[in-house]
Design a protein that fits this description.
About 65% of the residues lie in helices and about 0% in strands. The radius of gyration is 24 Å and the shape is elongated. The model has no long low-confidence stretch (mean pLDDT about 90). The chain starts with a helix and ends in an 8-residue tail after the last helix. The relative contact order is 0.09. Helix 2 (about 20-35) crosses helix 3 (about 40-60). The longest helix has 21 residues, at about 40-60. It has about 100 residues and is mostly helical. The protein has one domain (about 5-90).
């Protein structure tokens, strides 16, 4: 079990209820037995792993060294002056309270 799931399983501070078909429950129990875990620990570990992957996809990305260098070079360039954006930034917002 990964450290995050192990810590979560030990603390047992909150209850997480799920409903499943008999076939899904049987599948989870069989997989849990194969990994020498309880069904709850198995489901918790899988849920934590999946949640971390979903959130990592939204907050982190990895690039090979040459692409990272190109990316950071682009970030380091001076900003371009785009007249239409400058005009839009100066214009009073229609959402601002009057």
């Amino acid at each position: 079990m990964d450290p995050v799931a192990a810590r979560a399983a030990r603390s047992k501070g909150q209850r997480l209820n799920i409903r499943a078909t008999a076939a899904v429950k049987s599948l989870v129990e069989e997989a849990a037995r194969a990994t020498h875990m309880t069904a709850s620990a198995f489901v918790l570990q899988a849920a934590v792993r999946s949640a971390e992957e979903v959130l990592a996809d939204q907050t982190r990305f990895a690039l090979p060294p040459e692409q990272w260098a190109a990316f950071t070079a682009l970030l380091g360039r001076p900003a371009r002056d785009i007249p239409a954006l400058t005009k839009a930034a100066i214009k009073r917002s229609p959402f601002r309270e009057r």
